[in-house]
Amino acid sequence: MEEVSWYQPTPETSLAFIKEFNVSKTAKIIDIGGGDSFFVDHLLDLGYQDITVLDISETALSKAKQRLGEKSNRVKWIVEDAGTFKPTEQYDFWHDRAAFHFLTEDNEIESYIDTVKQNIKPTGILVIGSFSEQGPIKCSGIEIKQYSESSLESRFKEHLNKIECFTVDHRTPFNTNQNFVFCSFRRKR
C-alpha cells in the first residue's frame, strides 16, 4: 500500500469532516474513489452502518476487502467510473478525496455534478478533496484538473452552498508534498 502517493494510514481530514458534521452512525455514506484507502476501515471502527465505496479499480477494492476480512461484508462495493456513476440510492454524506480531479472533460464534470445534485439527500453534505492550483498536474502519470476554493465553489454553487474550504499539504510516502483543497457543501433547499 505505501507505494502509492495518496497513502494515508489515518485519513485525518476526512475523519474531521465526519466529526464536524456529526454524521449519524446510520447515515448513508459514499466514498467516491475510495479504492484501497483506510477511510472505510475507520468508518467501520467508528460504528458506521451504511457505507458504500466506489472505485474504478476492481484491484484496489479487492485489496480493501481482503484487508477488512469479514468486516468487508458490511460495506457495499461498486466498481465504476466516478464520471459515469448513476447511483440507485441517495446519500447523507458524499465523500470524494482525490477522484473528482481525474475528471478533466467538461461532460464528465457536468455528469458528476448532476449525479451529486440528484443523489445527495436534502440535508446531505458533499466533501471534495482535490489537487489545488499549487498541487501536482498529474497523478500516477494521469492528467488531472487542479482547483482553487473559488473554482470548486463555482462548479457546485448552482446546487450546493459552500460551508468551508481550506488547503492541506499531504506528505507522500516518497517524502514529497501534494497540496489539496478541501471544500464542504450542503445541498440547497
UniProtKB/TrEMBL annotation:
Keyword tags: Methyltransferase, Transferase
Domain Methyltransferase type: 30-126
InterPro entries: Methyltransf_12 (IPR013217), SAM-dependent_MTases_sf (IPR029063)
CDD domains named in the record: AdoMet_MTases (cd02440)
Sections of the chain in a coiled coil: none
Gene Ontology MF, one: methyltransferase activity
Methyltransferase is among the record's keywords: yes
GO terms under biological process: methylation
Name used for this protein in its record: Methyltransferase domain-containing protein
Lineage, uppermost ranks: Bacteria, Pseudomonadati, Bacteroidota, Flavobacteriia, Flavobacteriales
